């Protein structure tokens, strides 16, 4: 990833990786080692979308967004839209209390706080059940670190009056939701998604459904767009949560043309035929199924979908094609299905297991389905969205790793140690000062530049751009550059730690249980 870091000029554009890399460079494993060598693969192989594509829709984007540190997303648009329109939205992320919070966690803390400042309902949680079951942490260790994460989150500006902090182990409502979601999750999926097998403990599996519940928890009061800011290693969880959110829905809304069902590809063909034929006589007479079959056989290119569509249409015979929206009963109670039938206004037709409406458009139908579901005891979940930040490079060049203190800066590091670590960091500098003046430094490969971009420049884009420019043009030499970064880091740590102390009182007043009382 060192060859591919963002900078102020060219935020988020992944550079060529320059070398042949195996497919194994990118494995999204929430509990494994989380290095990403090639961010492009995340777009191509995993379907994560580029953040740059939604950037323009975000009102006053966060500097991590502007600088391409937040490089990817899933379905962030509804969240950005809610933000623009002043509608409800939420953000939630979780932290495994396996060690001290470090500057990588600060990215997520800042993302949560930013969404809170934009008017979101924001949740921060301590993933203690996960730390215990997936990482084997003892409850004593967990208690010790849990408090520390919360203190840093508060110190950075999280408002606990507006938002909610909780521990998984203490939240009964969360665990109840996890149980419900578990009824829609299958072991075979866990095998496929996480590589679980016969040796995986049941508690570990339970921690997965607990995380699914975390992700959907902000929607317990009412459905709303929700963003989960995380590293890309958490993407498998996000995908599963999006699936489960959909599987829990009472109704599924689709478009249809006749009493029978079509799949997406067939529906597209039938829509085409219908429009062409209805146009021909200005909608004067009904378009019959059999006519549409004839039309398709003549006009459409051969394909499996075509043969299927034609066969289905032939079976429909003289039934007229009429566009409609269809509400499927996928999980609804009888009462909810009855209530839905009642609630559909205008012309409708009721079948076994579905209702067709001839007057509603798709969007209105979706809204109605959700409303009826919520009123009748369902959740009405909106599939959760996510944003993904880049992993920071370790100060020693490799991966930032909590087992290697010199590679990362803990938010609890003594300011002087923080200073020393920056001074000792690997850089993207040249062998000699002379060479550096001539060729410029390699800011894109420099962990120190990353510190400027991800943290030390704060909101000041000009400063970040200046460091970058001065570096690559050879005006800036590593010694003084590191000195400046080290001083800024020490200042940041000192101030942050003061604020942590101030936050202690705040934390005591909150009803977050800090002693689990578990052994
Ligand atoms: N699994 C996450 C981690 O390893 C922690 C976590 C638990 C989480 N629940 C969450 C993250 C909900 C985001 C949303 O760090
Ligand atoms: Fe990194 Fe600064 Fe050296 Fe450039 S001058 S390579 S940014 S330490």
Describe the structure.
There is one protein chain. The protein contains 21 helices and 13 strands. The chain is of the alpha/beta class and 519 residues long. It has helices spanning 39-46, 52-55, 63-66, 77-85, 103-117, 128-135, 139-155, 172-182, 187-194, 202-216, 235-247, 264-280, 289-299, 304-316, 334-343, 362-375, 415-423, 433-439, 447-456, 461-472, 478-509, and strands at 49-50, 70-74, 90-95, 121-126, 164-167, 226-230, 251-256, 287-288, 320-321, 324-329, 348-351, 354-357, 385-389. The model is unreliable at 1-24 (pLDDT under 50). Strands 1-2-13-6-3-4-5 form a seven-stranded mixed β-sheet, with helices on both faces. It has a four-stranded antiparallel β-sheet with strand order 7-10-12-11, with helices on one face. Strands 8-9 form a two-stranded antiparallel ribbon. The longest helix is centred in the C-terminal third of the chain and has 32 residues, at 478-509. It folds into three domains: 47-248 and 383-389, Rossmann fold (3-Layer(aba) Sandwich), CATH 3.40.50; 252-375, no CATH class; 405-508, Tyrosyl-Transfer RNA Synthetase (Orthogonal Bundle), CATH 1.10.240.10. 48% of the residues lie in helices and 11% in strands.
Structural class computed from helices and strand pairing = alpha/beta
Mean pLDDT: 92
- The CATH topology annotation of the largest domain reads as Rossmann fold
Strand content: 5-15%
Report how far the terminal alpha carbons are from each other. 41 Å
List bound small molecules.
Answer: tryptophan, iron/sulfur cluster
Instruction: Find the count of extended strands (DSSP E, 2+ residues).
Output: 13
Query: If helices are DSSP runs of H or I spanning 4 or more residues, what is the number of helices?
Result: 21
CATH-assigned homologous superfamily of the largest domain: HUPs
How many domains make up the 3D coordinates? 3
Helical amount among residues, as a percent range?
40-55%
Shape by Cα distribution: globular
Rg, nearest Å: 27 Å
Overall CATH architecture of the largest domain: 3-Layer(aba) Sandwich
